[in-house]
């Protein structure tokens, strides 16, 4: 039986240690539920180590100090283990409902009491003592060492029952396992004297809770991917409005009678423009600025065919050997054309320029259109969906930014900043 207990304890301790390291150094390590679960693994590991020492070294003539340390580790860790679980339950529920601090403070008080009594036991033997022949002996008030943790255990059960309606069924099931499995292990342990199963049961419950965290994380990733796909569709729809399609096709139809060669060029530009937008939906990778500029040129060519001299475009490209998220430049240029230049009867000029600084690449899109009042850009209407998407993708993909300054009846300037050390940045050779 001694070998079985040692083997179970060591395997359980290794599992808890692996979980602890993963939770501490993995992604989202500062997440509160993960932090409390990591503490649970740590304290359960110390209890297992303490229990293993008591089982392995009991009766050895030289082992008084190890037995003393083992008993201290076992008892002093029981309170913090259960307190960490209380913190985990509260952290899981706090996003749905506000929980008073009184329950946690009560559990913290009992935990502190257990730690103090355990520390005192190393000197006065109230919980345990090491008798003659280095035999572990329960102390005079050993029952208190069981009552205090059991009281925290009841608080944890109360928290789960009290706030069960705020938990998803899967979360409730996994949290309940941390109550049911240790209880079942304790009953088996009581009915079979000599076998140590309590902390192994806790380890199994910790594994279930960890599995629940991983399942939740995978579901969150799936949801984020779904939202990303929807955002890409929004990007495309924000750039290809029905009126743009109608106006472009109308302009091509007119060119077919007046200038068939220009009509062919317009059809080619239109097809390449549509292909570029579709490619942006299926690719997460950044593209070269030159590619983005060509895509933007296709859009501008179509608009120039339609506006018949009212739209003028100026390029001041000082650098182009850097990467940008797809559909970064074109939405900004379209905004300048549709909501700046087109609103002037005489039209206007859109200027696209790039420059390089020691820290970043700068793209500037300016127009001499009607401009807009401060705050209008943040209204969230469909006009500015493209700008919002550009700003978000710049931040997420390369740590870049978008700043827009506008003066009514003067014009608008949009400045895109691409850090040289951003996630999307890759150096390439100039063609």
Total beta-strand segments:
9
| Count of individual domains | 2
**Weakly predicted, low-confidence segments:** 374-383, 423-431
Distance between the termini: 75 Å
What is the class of the largest domain in the CATH system?
Mainly Alpha
Number of helices: 12
In CATH terms, what is the fold-level topology of the largest domain? Rhopdopsin 7-helix transmembrane proteins
What fraction of residues sit in β-strands?
Answer: 5-15%
> What's the Cα radius of gyration?
34 Å
- Which range best describes the helical content: under 10%, 10-25%, 25-40%, 40-55%, 55-70% or over 70%? 55-70%
In one word, what is the shape? Answer: rod-shaped
Order of helices and strands: HHHHEEHHHHHEHEEHEEHEE
| Name of the CATH homologous superfamily of the largest domain | Rhodopsin 7-helix transmembrane proteins
Looking at the chains present, what oligomeric state does this protein adopt?
A: single chain
- Give the neighbour order of strands across the main sheet: 4-6-7-9-8
Mean pLDDT: 83
Return the structural class: alpha+beta
Largest sheet: 5 strands, mixed
In CATH, the architecture of the largest domain is Up-down Bundle
Report on the architecture of this protein.
There is one protein chain. The protein contains 12 helices and 9 strands. The protein is α+β, with helices and mostly antiparallel strands. The protein has 2 domains: 2-214, Rhopdopsin 7-helix transmembrane proteins (Up-down Bundle), CATH 1.20.1070.10; 240-419, 2-Layer Sandwich (Heat Shock Protein 90), CATH 3.30.565.10. It has a 5-stranded mixed β-sheet, covered by helices on one side. The longest helix has 42 residues, at 198-239. Mean pLDDT is 83; it is low at 374-383 and 423-431.
